[in-house]
Structures are given as C-alpha cells and as structure tokens.
C-alpha cells in the first residue's frame, strides 16, 4: 500500500511535538515537509523547535518558516501551556541543518504540485500559513486531497468561552481558509476533549521501552503539570488526534456542516459557528471519537522509536 504524502503545518507546541512523533511513527504516512507558524510561541521558537524535532526524529525533509504574526491581529502566544521555549522547556540538540529558503506557503505549493492531487495537509497551529498559501495560489484548494485541521469547537472554547486557541489566534486566516473550498476536516475540541489521557495512562506510556521515551515522558509530564494546575485530571494531546484521523479515519465520526468564523465581534472572536442544517456545507466536522482506537495508536507510538 502506498503511503499518504502529508505536509504538517505546525506551531510546536508540546502536543504538536507528540503529533509529529505520531505521524513519523505511522507506516501509513509519508511526511514531505514541515512548515512552521507562530502560535504557541513566536515563529523564532516554533520554527527552531520544528527543525530540531525533525532532526531528532530523522525526518529528512524541508522545514520552512512561515508567518511571524497573525494576518490582522497581535500575536498572543500560549507560553502558559507550552512553556517559554514552546516545548515545555525541554531542550533538544540543535539541528545542524538549515531552514529551507522558501516561505512556508511557497514550499507547500511546490510540494502539492509534485503530487498531482494526492497530498494532504495536516494543520495543527493557527491557519495563517494556509491562508497566505490560498491567497497567493488560489488553485491550491483543488490540488490538495484534504486539509485536516486541529481547531475550532461546535460548543465552548478553550482560549475564551467561545473560541478555541488555533482559530482565536488568527480568526481572519481561519475565515479565509474555511471559505476557500478545500476538502476540509475540522478536528476540534468536541472530539479532542473526549481523549483525555489519565495520569495512569501516562505512566503506562512512560513504561514502554523506546529510544525517545525520556522525551515523550517529559512532554507528557510537563503537559500534565500544567493541565493539573488548571484543574484537569489528565492531558489532551489535541494535535495528535488530527494526525490519528489521517492515519485511521475510523477514529472519528464526521458530519458535513456549514461553518463560519466570527472574526469581528470582540467577545466571540475566533468562534467557529457550526450549523448542521446550513445549506453551504463547507467542512466535515468531527463529533465522535473512538477513544480506544486513538489511545491504542498513541500508546503504541513510542514502540516505533526502538
Ligand atoms: C490547540 O492549541 C494549541 O495550544 C495546541 O497546540 C493545539 O494545536 C488546542 O486548542
Ligand atoms: Ca498546535
């Protein structure tokens, strides 16, 4: 079976790091490029993390920098959740490789063009790079097989009462991408929240023998520490669920919906307005998750790195 070629657009990010590890561990995916965007931390930090993660995991593909600010909004990072360096203040060996000299959106376009409609994009940060790619190359939407994003919520948010972080961080970019015509899947809080890994699950994962188990354990511990402070009994690896879906579609149940983005109202800014009855259905939204399937995929991930 041929592998699915994917580009990962990301803002590492503790859960982004684990999502990239999951993607690399899968026999079904072939990572063709990694593009970095500002979000959980500044672009300087997220792009360095992306390059160092690729180096650590032996992902020998182009890593490119993208947007260093949202399209029409100040940059608000998430250092409270992801730490000062973006990956829980875990320090990786610095990669000796250089960044690709193209911008993220140009690299995305070049890679998509090579694949004749087979390439998929998994976007697990704010949608700024993808929006710029669409603005610069409108034909891109019909050249990408599928865009799977982690972001949004049909119910409440996590960054505000109304908005999920990735959409809230750049609502204008999200608005452009949601209106663009991509074959698009939204993996939002409605499903990621149902994948809480308990302290016991974390301990089980840490007991697996793996080359990178110390790093995996530290990432999970760092997340758990921060989640616990906020009153959560476990951790949610949001971004890993978007990757898990592309690996195995039976992870999620989707419904076609009309989704629009609140990009102006100050209080509701970044809200994904999900309408199941709307006649312009533009996005397949995930509402149910097979938690055991996801947990199994995630728990087996460290075994790959033996
Ligand atoms: C999303 O926000 C970020 O902090 C995470 O990396 C994830 O992509 C969850 O709302
Ligand atoms: Ca992310």
UniProtKB/TrEMBL annotation:
InterPro entries: Inosine/uridine_hydrolase_dom (IPR001910), IUNH (IPR023186), Ribo_hydro-like (IPR036452)
Pfam family, one: IU_nuc_hydro
Keywords assigned by UniProt, alphabetized: Glycosidase, Hydrolase
Source taxon at top rank: Bacteria
Residues in Inosine/uridine-preferring nucleoside hydrolase domain copies: 6-295
One GO CC term, this protein: cytosol
Any GO BP: purine nucleoside catabolic process
GO molecular function (one): purine nucleosidase activity
PANTHER family: INOSINE-URIDINE PREFERRING NUCLEOSIDE HYDROLASE, URIDINE NUCLEOSIDASE
Protein name: Inosine/uridine-preferring nucleoside hydrolase domain-containing protein
Organism per entry: Peptostreptococcus russellii
């Amino acid at each position: 079976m041929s592998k699915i070629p994917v580009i990962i657009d990301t803002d590492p990010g503790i859960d982004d790091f684990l999502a990239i590890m999951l993607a690399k561990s899968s026999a079904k995916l072939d990572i063709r490029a990694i593009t970095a965007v500002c979000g959980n931390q500044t672009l300087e930090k997220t792009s360095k993390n992306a390059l160092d993660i690729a180096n650590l995991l032996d992902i020998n593909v182009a890593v490119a920098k993208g947007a260093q600010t949202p399209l029409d909004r100040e940059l608000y990072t998430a250092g409270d959740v992801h730490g000062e360096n973006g990956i829980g203040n875990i320090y990786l060996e610095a990669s000796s490789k250089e960044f690709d000299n193209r911008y993220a959106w140009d690299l995305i376009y070049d890679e998509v063009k090579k694949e004749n409609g087979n390439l998929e994009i998994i976007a697990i940060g704010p949608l700024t790079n993808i929006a710029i790619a669409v603005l610069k190359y409108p034909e891109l939407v019909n050249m990408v097989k599928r865009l799977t994003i982690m972001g949004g919520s049909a119910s409440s948010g996590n960054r505000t009462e109304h908005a999920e972080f990735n959409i809230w961080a750049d609502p204008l970019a999200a608005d452009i991408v949601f209106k663009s015509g991509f074959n698009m899947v939204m993996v939002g809080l409605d499903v990621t929240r149902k994948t809480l890994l308990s302290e016991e699950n974390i301990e089980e994962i840490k007991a697996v023998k793996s080359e990178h188990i110390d790093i995996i354990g530290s990432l999970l511990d760092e997340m758990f520490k921060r989640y616990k402070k906020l009153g959560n009994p476990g951790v949610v690896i949001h971004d890993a669920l978007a990757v898990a879906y592309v690996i195995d579609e039976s992870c999620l149940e989707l419904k076609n919906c009309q989704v629009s983005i609140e990009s102006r109202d100050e209080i509701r800014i970044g809200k994904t307005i999900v309408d199941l009855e709307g006649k312009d259905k533009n996005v397949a939204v995930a509402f149910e998750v097979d938690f055991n399937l996801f947990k199994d995929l995630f728990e087996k991930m460290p075994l790959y790195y033996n």
